């Protein structure tokens, strides 16, 4: 027997098959190279698109991470700001006076000249001063050093986004204004620190004051509500379907419907929420609670599908082992299967939440695109969310919102990347080998 | 000379741990086990042999109602352990499985520590009143499974870190920790190397004095080595059952003869 | 019986059975030659017969090696196991048969004066015929796997024993008739005893064949009474 086999193998070296294989080899290799290059080309294309996307967002967004500030020495004139009537004091006049020090030719009595001078400062500058004095009334009568944001046109000018070569009539600020700003610059009063207002402020009509705090808080509440509802419900549904439900036509039907639900366009969920949560239940519009409910509806199928997949991936040998020593069904599920499936479930949940974080359409429909200038303190306050804030800003005409929109997108992307990173971390950390 | 296995069993009816009468198993429309009658003796090793798909594993899994977990599986006929019908609606499978332990083909320790692997069964059944008792159960189970010397210094290490043979003995220790009367083994050595197999076989032989062991194996040599009685299954039918030495030297049925001598085409 | 899934296993078992058959044939011819040498006082033939026994020893060794190898490699079960084990026993018996034939041949050389009368040896020739017939039949039963034939061979051993008893009496009579016959007759008596032992080995082989085929031992103990003792009274 063995002799025959070895003889066969010796023959194989010079048999017709070898010949045929050799002839077709170069053609086959060519095809393989072709296929590989197609794949590489596709990946390069995708990477290129990603770089263009990120590049355009970053290039227009990075400006928003700094804000032009004007450094002023302000004499808090007790005549303008009486200690007994603080909130209604003439803070604007005080600021104008502080500015006028550097422009001797300007008469503050001339209202037009005064407005032109103070237009360099943000509209919010007087409120910053007011807040400072209100919190510390002893400042009245003293000269304090104050850094206030420049208003949007001057901010743009400082960042070089206003072309000085453009004919005057096509510019938002005239030559005189530019001259005034340049003078301040010469005096070293202009600085461009990190724009912390982008995170610490809520929305505003004025780009230099507008921030994402309201949106971040709104998104946080919405996601919290979404998580608290979709996570237990989703896991519960998945465990029942995977471990306890009989496998028959009805469970098949349910499974198909859950899969379909995951594919339903998000705007439909928004309409549903509008009709049910706001229309029937009378829940408040624009509230993160309703937003969270809506997002939970969307996230639940994702969580159910992810959980079922994770439960399925737990080897049956573990179930058998537990059943074999006399564990009851629920002991098997909660003592062994669920803990082992947890990394997968968490990963799926985080991915689902990340998806919910970026969801815009349903939130628009329930009014989470309202203009709200303070951060929500509970899930029932009106609020915006990150994506809807982007939507609002993208719609705003002020130049400053262009870069802020991109900056907000970057913040959103950063959160998404972070959440995905957490998902990957959880998966690799808790993945059990068996 | 040619007395049937049935008459041989009848003489020993008084000495029966597990008795199956006219057992039928269906998987959906498939008739997987047909009319199986067998009596299994206490404190001995009974081996089930037969070609793949002959129903030996299926029948084994009827003995602790492991088939209950499969929706489409239906069992008919009567199986009694110590005279008690295990398919009686009053019998809870959980209760049954505490009495009839099982060891599986692939070593399947829980991804937990060695200690927790063994303590799991006693814990869920509430067999130990305190930590000291639990420790005692764990150490005695490991000793009975011949794993104590290898495992005593690493009780906190994961059970999955042991070698294949040690894992399988850990699974046996886990099974005996709940103090069962019967231990079912479904091809316990098929994933092990010969040395590990020998250790498990030696263990089976030791356990025989205290437990009724039923083992499914693909290896006829293993059946010959470890069992006192052997049952040959073919196409869902129990073809022949008898003393192991008789089955392997002088089987009465042509199908058994063909199978054990390696003549199945 | 159907073929093994592993064909080489079949080949090995067939080869083993072939070796046994060859050994059986050789044992038969050795006995035949030894007795022929006795009858014709052919010393040359007697010597060749003694040498032939060496060939039987070699065959036995070869068969034992084959059996050990087969058990190690194939782990025979059931019928195969019985076949292999029986082959070993049968080979042993055949080797003993060869030894007994050699003993007869040695006697031929020992009776250097030659037989004074053919008549004395006729009984030995007769028992040899019977014993050889037993051998032939049992070897046939082995190759044909015939348990019934093997059982018959075992029954027929009584006939060989009976012949031996009568031959014993006959030779005793010759010795009493003429004391000069005593040496020759004593030699012949040993030869007859050897041949009778060959019959016993045939019986052993028959029992092994029966076990090999059926898996059962032949039950009742064969009546074996040495009636030679009766005469000496």
UniProtKB/TrEMBL annotation, chain A:
GO terms, biological process: phosphate ion transmembrane transport
GO molecular function: phosphate transmembrane transporter activity
Location in the cell: Cell inner membrane; Cell membrane
One Gene Ontology CC term in the entry: plasma membrane
Xref: CDD domains: TM_PBP2
Pfam families, A to Z: BPD_transp_1, DUF3333
InterPro entries: DUF3333, MetI-like, MetI-like_sf, Phosphate_PstA
Membrane-spanning ranges: 33-58, 220-241, 261-283, 289-311, 332-354, 407-426
Main localization of the protein described in the UniProt heading: membrane
Residues in ABC transmembrane type-1 domain copies: 216-423
Domain of life (superkingdom): Bacteria
Membrane topology annotation: Multi-pass membrane protein
Annotated Gene3D superfamilies: MetI-like
Assigned keywords, A-Z: Cell membrane, Membrane, Transmembrane, Transmembrane helix, Transport
Similarity comment: family membership: Belongs to the binding-protein-dependent transport system permease family. CysTW subfamily.
Descriptive protein name: Phosphate transport system permease protein PstA
High-level lineage: Bacteria, Pseudomonadati, Pseudomonadota, Alphaproteobacteria, Hyphomicrobiales
UniProtKB/TrEMBL annotation, chain C:
Superkingdom in the source lineage: Bacteria
UniProt keywords, alphabetically: Cytoplasm, Phosphate transport, Transport
UniProt keyword annotation of Cytoplasm present: yes
Ranges for domain PhoU: 20-108, 125-209
A Gene Ontology cellular-component term: cytoplasm
SUPFAM superfamilies, per database record: PhoU-like
Full protein name: Phosphate-specific transport system accessory protein PhoU
Organism: Roseibium aquae
Lineage: Bacteria, Pseudomonadati, Pseudomonadota, Alphaproteobacteria, Hyphomicrobiales
């Amino acid at each position: 027997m063995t002799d025959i086999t070895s003889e066969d193998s010796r023959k194989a070296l010079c048999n017709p098959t070898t010949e045929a294989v050799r002839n077709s080899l170069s053609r086959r290799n060519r095809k393989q190279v072709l296929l590989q290059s197609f794949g590489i080309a596709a990946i390069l294309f995708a990477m290129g698109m990603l770089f263009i996307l990120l590049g355009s967002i970053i290039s227009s967004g990075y400006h928003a991470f700094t804000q032009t500030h004007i450094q002023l020495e302000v004499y808090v004139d007790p005549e303008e700001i009486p200690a007994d009537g603080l909130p209604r004091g003439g803070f604007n006049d005080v600021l104008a006076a502080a500015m006028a020090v550097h422009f001797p030719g300007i008469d503050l009595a001339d209202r037009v000249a005064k407005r032109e001078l103070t237009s360099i400062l943000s509209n919010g500058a007087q409120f910053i001063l007011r807040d400072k004095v209100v919190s510390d009334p002893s400042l009245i009568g003293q000269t304090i050093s104050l850094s206030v944001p420049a208003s949007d046109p001057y901010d743009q000018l400082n960042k070089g986004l206003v072309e000085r070569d453009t004919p005057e009539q096509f510019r938002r600020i005239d030559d005189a204004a530019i001259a005034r700003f340049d003078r301040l610059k010469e005096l070293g009063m202009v600085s461009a620190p990190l724009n912390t207002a982008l995170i610490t402020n809520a929305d505003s009509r004025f780009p230099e004051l507008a921030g994402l705090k309201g949106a971040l808080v709104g998104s946080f509440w919405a996601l919290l509500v979404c998580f608290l509802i979709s996570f237990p419900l989703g896991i519960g549904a998945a465990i029942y379907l995977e471990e306890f439900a009989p496998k028959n036509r009805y469970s098949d039907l349910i499974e198909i419907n859950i899969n379909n639900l995951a594919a339903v366009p998000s705007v439909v969920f928004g309409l549903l929420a509008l009709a049910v949560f706001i229309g029937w239940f009378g829940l408040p519009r624009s509230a993160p609670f309703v937003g969270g409910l809506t997002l939970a509806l969307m996230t639940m199928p994702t969580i159910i599908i992810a959980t079922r997949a994770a439960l399925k991936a737990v080897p049956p040998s573990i179930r058998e082992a537990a059943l074999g020593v006399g564990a009851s069904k629920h002991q098997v599920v909660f003592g062994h299967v669920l803990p082992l499936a947890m990394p997968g479930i968490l990963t799926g949940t985080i991915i689902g939440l990340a998806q919910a974080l970026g969801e815009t359409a349903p939130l628009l429909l329930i009014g989470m695109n309202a203009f709200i200038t303070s951060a929500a303190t509970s899930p029932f306050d009106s609020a915006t969310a990150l994506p809807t804030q982007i939507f609002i800003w993208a719609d705003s005409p002020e130049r400053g919102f262009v870069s802020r929109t991109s900056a907000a997108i970057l913040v959103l992307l950063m959160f998404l990347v972070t959440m995905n990173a957490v998902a990957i971390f959880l998966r690799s950390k808790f993945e059990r080998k068996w | 000379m040619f007395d049937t296995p049935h008459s041989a069993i009848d003489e020993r009816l008084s000495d029966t741990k597990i008795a199956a009468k006219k057992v039928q198993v269906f998987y959906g429309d498939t008739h997987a086990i047909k009319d199986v009658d067998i009596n299994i003796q206490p404190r001995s090793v009974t081996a089930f042999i037969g070609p793949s798909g002959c129903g030996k594993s299926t029948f084994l899994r009827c003995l602790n109602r492991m088939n209950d977990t499969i929706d489409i599986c239906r069992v008919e006929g009567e199986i009694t352990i110590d005279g008690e019908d295990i398919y009686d609606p009053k019998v809870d499978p959980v209760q049954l499985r505490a009495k009839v332990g099982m060891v599986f083909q692939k070593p399947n320790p829980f991804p937990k520590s060695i200690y927790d692997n063994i303590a799991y069964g006693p814990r869920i059944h509430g067999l130990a009143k305190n930590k000291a008792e639990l420790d005692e159960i764990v150490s005695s189970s490991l000793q009975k499974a011949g794993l104590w010397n290898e495992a005593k210094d690493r009780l906190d290490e994961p059970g999955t870190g042991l070698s294949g043979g040690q894992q399988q003995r850990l699974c046996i220790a886990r099974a005996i920790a709940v103090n069962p009367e019967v231990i079912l083994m479904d091809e316990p050595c098929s994933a092990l190397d010969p040395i590990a197999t020998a250790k498990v076989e030696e263990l089976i032989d030791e356990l025989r004095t205290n437990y009724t062991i039923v083992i499914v194996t693909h290896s006829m040599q293993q059946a010959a080595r470890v069992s006192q009685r052997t049952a040959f299954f073919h196409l869902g039918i129990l073809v022949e059952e008898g003393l192991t030495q008789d089955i392997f030297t002088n089987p009465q049925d042509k199908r058994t003869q063909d199978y054990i001598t390696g003549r199945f085409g | 019986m159907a073929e093994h899934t592993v064909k080489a296993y079949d080949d090995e078992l067939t080869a083993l059975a072939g070796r046994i058959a060859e050994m059986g044939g050789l044992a038969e011819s050795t006995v035949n030659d030894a007795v022929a040498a006795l009858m014709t006082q052919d010393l040359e033939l007697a010597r060749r017969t003694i040498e032939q026994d060496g060939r039987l020893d070699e065959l036995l060794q070869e068969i034992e090696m084959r059996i050990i190898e087969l058990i190690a490699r194939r782990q025979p079960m059931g019928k195969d196991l019985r076949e292999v084990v029986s082959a070993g026993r049968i080979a042993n018996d055949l080797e003993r048969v060869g030894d007994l034939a050699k003993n007869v041949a040695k006697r031929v050389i020992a009776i250097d004066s030659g037989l004074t009368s053919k008549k004395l040896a006729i009984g030995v020739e007769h028992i040899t015929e019977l014993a050889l017939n037993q051998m032939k039949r049992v070897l046939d039963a082995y190759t044909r796997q015939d348990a019934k034939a093997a059982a018959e061979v075992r029954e027929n051993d009584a006939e060989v024993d009976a012949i031996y008893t009568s031959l014993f009496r006959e030779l005793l009579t010759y010795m009493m008739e003429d004391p000069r016959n005593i040496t020759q007759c004593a030699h012949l008596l040993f030869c007859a005893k050897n041949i009778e032992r060959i019959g016993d080995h045939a019986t052993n082989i028959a029992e092994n064949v029966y076990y090999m085929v059926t898996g059962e031992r032949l039950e009742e103990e064969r009546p074996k009474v040495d009636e030679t003792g009766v005469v000496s009274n």
